[in-house]
Amino acid sequence: MAKSSVLGYPRIGADREWKKALEAFWAGKLEESEFHKQLREIRLNHLRKQQESGIDLIAVNDFSYYDHILDTATMFGIVPKRFRYEGGIVPLSVYYGIARGTKDATASEMTKWFNTNYHYIVPELDGAVPVLTENRPLAAYREAKEKLGIEGKPVIVGPLTFLKLSKGYQASETDAWLDKLLPLYVQILRELAHEGVQWVQIDEPILVTKLSEADLERLNTIYETFAASAPGLNIMLQTYFESVENYQDIIQLPVSGIGLDLVHGYKGNLQAIQQSGFPANKVLGAGIIDGRGIWKASLREKLSQLEELTKYVAAERLIVQSSCSLLHVPVTVSKETKLQPELKDALAFADEKLIELDLLTKAISTGAARIANELEHNDLALQALKQSEERNRLDVQRAVAEVSAQNPARSLPFEERHVAQQNKWKLPIFPTTTIGSFPQSAEVRKARQAWRKGDWNDEQYEQFIHEQIDIWIKLQEEIGLDVLVHGEFERTDMVEFFGEKLGGFAFTQFGWVQSYGSRCVKPPVIFGDVAFEQPMTVEETKYAQSKTSRPVKGMLTGPITIMNWSFVREDISREQIAYQLAYALRQEVEALEQAGIGMIQVDEPAVREGLPLKEEDQAEYLAWAVKAFRMTTCTVQPTTQIHTHMCYCEFHDMIDSIEAMDADVISIETSRSHGELIHSFEVNTYKLGIGLGVYDIHSPRVPRVEEMTGMIERALRVLDPKLFWINPDCGLKTRGKEETVASLRNMVQATEIARSSY
Ligand code: GLN
Ligand code: ZN
Fold first, then answer.
1. Ligand 1 site-directed mutation target among 117, 433, 435, most atoms within 8 Å of CB
2. Is residue 434 a contact partner of residue 481, using CB atoms and an 8 Å limit?
3. Nearest to 680, CA basis, from 705, 661, 706, 654
4. How far apart are CA 585 and CA 576, in angstroms?
5. Atom 5 in ligand 1: which residue has the minimum CA distance?
6. Atom 1 of ligand 1: nearest residue by CA position
7. Catalytic annotation on 698?
8. Does residue 487's CB lie within 6 angstroms of at least one atom of ligand 1?
9. Per-residue pLDDT reduced to its tens digit, 668-691
10. Considering the entire predicted model, what is its pTM?
């Protein structure tokens, strides 16, 4: 009989009770003992749900007080030197210090977990002496067994992945580090074996990336060591997010099971199985239910995929499982009350995926007839979504097909546009501007709430927004900025704002997922054809422009960012979705231009987030991402200046694509890339307008003038002064008013100093 398995379950809880507990504890409103008690209840509740759904192999130790990579590091006593830690179990104060920073020590770096929107805390190895401070997988196993009678499957991040994601050591020290860590892993596994644990899941998602020969050798050493040290224990070597790179090597490792992602890596993994077979002495963890998507699976399709697999692996050696941890999807659809029925019926969040796993396991073990009713229901639900009005906007489909068949290009090349724009705008050398948003004060948030609740009518709210615009237009003029913005006071979130106004989007009430720590996001759902319905930003921008003689930049979120920060439909390609978004946004760009707005910024901070994990797929993605941006912006007059903005990550290896977007001006975050970005411009000689952020907006600290002149001088060593702009790193919505004004005044002063030597 096949078994069902889950690789991990969302931590946050259906009501985000986990987040609330964490934040209450941080705020000192919850005693530590009470905090532990609440988290235990949440954890057990999640296990109970999986047990009740009939899941055979339930992950334990997937739960966390913040992040599972931080858990692994602290379990090994790996604590950066700047935190006071005297050995032993890492206290919560230190644990949260590493994650969030303390008065005296900055937090550890946080970075994206592969190609997801989850962020983990990067372990810092330097100076650490790893020891096993506690066997957490064992504790989690015991708890599940004692409290619920669950025969759990402890999960651990594997040593190779852990090392590869850590920093603070040289490549040449990798083996030395492995030597330090392996005995600790061995101790954990031995204790698990001794306890009678049957399966342990060792996560090695790093195996979907390209590995060097040396790493493959390390992989061998690791798993040979494990097999020799804990012979009775079944190891499921778990991979996810893509197909594995070295299938042949991996299937030869001495483990009992190999877990493959058969959703995001379906093609590659299946091909490998078909070509090389699957070892008869191993179990296949068939990750067939999408752990990252929100849609119901087509049970029929999944069943036929499982049947295909049984040609290579006997059904009793199949484990039907999620493609990755369910951490990346919301908890349950059942609480949603406002979605239209065709949509709601086609969704499957974590709890609904448990049911799918159970059904497929039964069907593959005892025949599809056993789930005949469910199959029929499933067909109907998927059919209804397919036939929904939103998925059949022929007007959109036709227009997008036509527009995307053309090569989107501005009517003149940049050099000529640049001259025309200089003649029109007569901007000084080193024009100054900001990225778009100004402080979202408590007052702004309160006003929006009052309006959303209906306490304020539309006019009251609009008047309030106008007042904010008035204040900030005046302030920007006083500060002496050259290109102004309206301040984005009417927006909570740069994606949600547009999603609410475009056709084809839906918003859940409870569809939260963990982004990092206690921060959760509720991505919009792009479920239909995206349609422009009416101008979205024209009113506020026009109003702002009417209050000043200086140019006001219109402000839009770009197609790729909207797509990458949403859950999207899967019946058409991401490329097609991007073009639909681009076409809709193009209509907004045109509306702004028609309303007399001559500078329009289309933000694309999240371009890199959609970059495929496999190098060979990246060029294609970048090509259509660039095309979508150009589609959005190409129809304006040569004198209309298109801006874009990027932040959050490294861009130094993407400069060609950035240039290909052909924006007249890009403003780009610089401070967190530590000069790497500037260096890469040196190598690449960027030929369009560019503003490198001259100060970090993530801190309330007001930067000194000299710091910024330093940044400017450094940038001017590599960039053409005639194309250089001066701006902060990103939007200012999280900052206070006073520090914002003071920082911008200093920025303008630094600009004047720079101008005086040109
Ligand atoms: N225009 C947006 C703002 O200023 C850009 C935000 C972002 O880059 N994340 O807030
Ligand atoms: Zn930004």
1. 435
2. yes
3. 654
4. 14
5. 731
6. 436
7. yes
8. no
9. 998 766 667 777 777 767 899 999
10. 0.96
